Structures are given as C-alpha cells and as structure tokens.
UniProtKB/TrEMBL annotation:
GO biological process: proteolysis
Ranges where the Peptidase M16 N-terminal domain occurs: 36-180
Organism encoding this protein: Flavobacterium laiguense
Gene Ontology MF: a single term: metal ion binding
Annotated keywords: Hydrolase, Metalloprotease, Protease, Signal, Zinc
Protein family: Belongs to the peptidase M16 family.
Protein name (Swiss-Prot/TrEMBL): Peptidase M16
Length: 441
C-alpha cells in the first residue's frame, strides 16, 4: 500500500512538472511559404531570432559531400548589405551572440540579442537568405577553415573518426553513409557555380522555419517579419528522396586503424528507426538504462565492479530517416574488446528476457522528465526545439507533449523493442584499433 501511494505521488509530481513547463507559441505562414513561430517570454530582456533550413548532409551529391556544413560557415561571409568580415562585429557590438550548426537533416542559424535589437536580428537573417554573396574569396577562405576543423576535430583527435567508420559500414544506399564534415577532396573539386547552385536550390523561404523567442511585442515583431522576409521570393522546393536500406541480418565486421590512439576500442552499432517513431523513443529509454552515465547498468558493472574497462557508454543518433545506437568500450589491463562485448551482450539479453524493475523504470521516467525540463529551460533551447519539431516532426506541439509519449512506454515495450532491434545478427562490430607503425625506408 505504501509503495502504491509513493508511485501515485510520483506520478502526480511528474504531471505537475510537465504541465508547468508548457511552452506557448503562435505559428503562421508568410505568402512565400516561410513558416513562422513566435514564443513570448518576458522573464529576461533577450530575444532570439533563428532560422532552420531543411537541408543537411543527406541532401548532398555523393561526390560533393560536406556542402551543407560548408554553407554553415560560408553564409557568415557577408551579404550585399553586410560587408565581408562585418557579421560578427555587428552582432557583438550590439550586445549579441550568434552561432550555427549542421546535421545530416537540417542547418540552423541563430542570434541572441538584447530585446531592443529584435529588428536587427530579423534583418540580418533576412539578409543571409535574400542577399548572400557567394564568391571565390569567401569559398577559398572557408575551405581552409573547414579543413582545419576536420584536422583538429576528426583526423588528429583520438577516436575522432569513429562516427565516419561506423556510418560507412552501416549504410550502403542512404547518404547517412558520410559525415557532415564531408571529404575535403569534394570541396576542393567543387566549382563556384556548384556552390551558388546549392544555395539557390535549398536556401528558400518555403524550405525554412523562422522562430522568434523571448521578450518582444508580437504586433511589432509580425510587422518586421513581413517587412524583411515577406519580399523574399518563393522557390521550388525539391522533394526529399527516399533511400531504403536492406535490414541487417548478419553481423557486419569491420576494422578501422587510428594513428592517434594506443588503446583499442570496441564499437557495436545497431541501426534504429526514424526518430519520429515510437520505437525510437523506446530505444532512447533503453540507451539511458544501459549506458547513460556512471549510474547506468553497463558502467556500474564493467567499469566500477569488474574493472574491465576504462570507459563504457553509448551514443544515440536520432535522425529523420534512420538512427543509430552505438555502444563502445575501452578495455583495461589484460581484458580485451571481446571480454567487454561479452558483458555488454549479457546486459542486453537481460533486457530482452526480463522486465526491468519498477524502481529502474521509475528512475528512467524521472531522468527523462528532468531532461524535458532542461531542454526547455532556456530561450535558446526552446527556439531550437520549436524549429526542430516543426521542420523534422511536422508537429510543433511535441515540445509540450513528447514527454507524455515517454510516460506511456511500458516495461513490456522496452523488452519487446530490445528483442526487435538489439540482436547480434543486426549490428556492426567495429574493431577500432591503433594504426600499425609503418616501416622506415
């Protein structure tokens, strides 16, 4: 009886958390097809203007990889009305910050200003869309910037190419098989005309969502949005291609040699369904249960208790078409990657065979409620979520209701989904090993 009362109390508390975090918003379309979302929050005198474009690495040609990420850099070069090198100066001199990021599925730009600079933020983002200058000096400059990023963040970083090695083995047809950074040879071979064509093809008002969030007056904001974005011509949005991957029915084995490491790493990767599916959300819970932090089952067992590994964990990649669940481990001492894999597989079999405990289930729910609160705790987080839920999920209100989907997942579903996706014949086993020393000539 006491346990039932505690569970009821926890449920009521979680419901209160979800309710208290409700995000109010208004959405509408401009005549040119640009979607607009407004979220008013006067708790701090700041405002964010952000634009998310439905273009990512998966929209590139196989011999011109890296274009979407390259534009994340290139479109800060300047416009017809913002001189080259002036973008960041304008932002900082007006008390603001800005950034951008790219994934396989979308590209996102934003500025955060004091609330009295909303018009400036809207004008700058409209300039990026309406009047970008894409010329040789900008392309050459950013080519060097991207090359340096690839060297420091991937090629010269220990274990920096794990994702590249996994993706090229997990996908055969889908453009997810390459990374967002792309191949430098593709960028080197590209012509200025190709860069300009990419911009014309994807940087369209009707291929984007504009989010204004923070402290602003709605009537005035709508007038400025119409003033700066309304005149931009609507374009022809190219339909997204569908790429189907054959199910993995036999273990894929691969090896990658990294000259920057001394300890081999075990990598086991499973292909998962679109992030929009219920199964993907169940897998989120499974991932957290197995490998999220030092209190997870795998870390406590393999690192703390048995001291077989320096580290064990997982990375989940939730994407628009497919996802990946990547488990990894760094063996310690005389233990091998095979030893670590055996321990991981034992924990997966337990989930597939038995229901996780009520206590563990409640811990998961609490953790996801905390994550829900955290992601909507800042204006930046809210703006990003509003844009993502519209562009990738086609349901903005998921910013308020997705947590209810996680609440509705049962222990029985967790067991069933683990059985469905996390089997030895459905994965990639990657030996990520130190590169062999080359003999001296």
């Amino acid at each position: 009886m006491k346990k039932s009362i505690m569970m009821l109390s926890a449920t009521l508390m979680l419901g209160g958390v979800a309710s208290a975090q409700k995000v109010a918003f208004e959405e509408y379309d401009l005549d040119n097809g640009m979607h607009v979302i407004l979220h008013h929050d006067a708790s701090a005198p700041v405002v964010i203007t952000s634009v998310m474009y439905h273009v990512g690495a998966k929209d590139e040609n196989p011999d011109r990889t890296g274009f979407a990420h390259f534009f994340e850099h290139l479109l800060f070069e300047g416009t017809e009305n913002i001189k080259r090198g002036e973008w960041f100066k304008i932002v900082t001199s007006n008390g603001g910050t800005n950034n951008a990021n790219t994934t396989d599925d979308r590209t996102y730009y934003y500025e955060i200003f004091p609330s009295n600079n909303l018009e400036l933020g809207l004008w700058m983002e409209s300039e990026r869309l309406m009047h970008p200058i894409i010329n040789k000096i900008g392309v050459d400059t950013q080519n060097e910037v991207v090359k340096e990023e690839k060297r420091t963040s991937y090629d010269n970083r220990p274990y920096g190419n794990i994702l590249a090695a996994v993706k090229e083995n997990m996908f055969k047809n889908h453009p997810y098989r390459w990374t967002t950074i792309g191949a430098m040879k593709d960028l080197d071979a590209a012509t200025l005309d190709e860069f300009q064509a990419f911009n014309k093809k994807f940087y369209l008002p009707n291929n984007a969502v504009l989010v204004v969030a923070g402290d602003f007056e709605k009537k005035q904001a709508k007038e400025w949005i119409q003033k700066y974005f309304g005149p931009i011509a609507k374009g022809e949005v190219v339909p997204k291609k569908t790429y189907l991957e054959e199910p993995i029915t036999q273990t894929i084995k691969a090896t990658y040699e990294d000259p920057n490491i001394q300890i081999p790493m075990l990598v086991a990767s499973y292909r998962t369904p679109s992030m929009k599916t219920r199964d993907a959300r169940v897998l989120d819970l499974i991932s957290s249960y197995l490998s999220d932090g030092k209190s997870s089952k795998l870390y406590k067992k393999v690192v703390d208790d048995k001291k077989m590994a320096l580290q064990v964990g997982a990375v989940g990649f939730s994407q628009e078409d497919y996802g990946m669940y990547i488990l990894y481990g760094l063996p310690m001492g005389t233990f091998t990657t095979t030893d670590v894999l055996k321990e991981i597989d034992e924990e997966i079999v337990k989930i597939q065979t038995d229901l996780i405990s009520e206590n563990d289930y409640q811990k998961l729910q609490n953790k996801f409620d905390n994550n829900f609160v955290d992601t909507n705790s800042t204006i930046e987080g809210i703006a990003n979520n509003l844009a993502s839920y519209y562009l990738l999920y086609k349901d903005v209100n998921l910013i308020n209701t997705e947590i209810e989907l996680y609440h509705s997942i049962t222990r029985e579903e967790i067991r069933a989904v683990a059985k469905k996706y996390l089997n030895p014949n459905q994965r990639l086993l990657l030996d990520y090993i130190p590169a062999k020393a080359k003999p001296l000539n």
